């Protein structure tokens, strides 16, 4: 169980790091877009962000007017509670976690 706990913590840290770098990339792309750099190739060259990422985010800017992610259903506190439940019993099934979220936190999620 020590390995699974360590892996879970490492995985969460890795996910948080990836989210922050993605947000940084998005905000950098938006900055250059708002400062009249309209070419994805130019933005990619200046920022060293992959051109596919730049193109994807520019399409989002054009369609939505923003680069924000969709709203999340599970808050940071819900996420923390899930982690605690899993650490208490790492053999808990996803359906049990769904029921626990519904009962304890009035949060309806799918598996």
UniProtKB/TrEMBL annotation:
UniProt superkingdom: Eukaryota
InterPro entries per UniProt: Homeodomain-like_sf
Name this polypeptide is given: Transposase
């Amino acid at each position: 169980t020590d390995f699974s706990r360590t892996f879970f913590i490492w995985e969460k840290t890795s996910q948080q790091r990836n989210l922050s770098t993605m947000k940084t990339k998005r905000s950098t792309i938006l900055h250059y877009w708002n400062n009249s750099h309209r070419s994805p190739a130019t933005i990619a060259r200046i920022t060293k962000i992959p051109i596919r990422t730049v193109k994807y985010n520019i399409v989002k800017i054009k369609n939505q007017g923003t680069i924000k992610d969709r709203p999340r259903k599970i808050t940071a506190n819900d996420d923390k509670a899930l982690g605690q439940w899993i650490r208490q019993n790492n053999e808990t099934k996803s359906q049990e976690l769904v029921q626990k979220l519904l009962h304890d936190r009035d949060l309806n999620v799918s598996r």
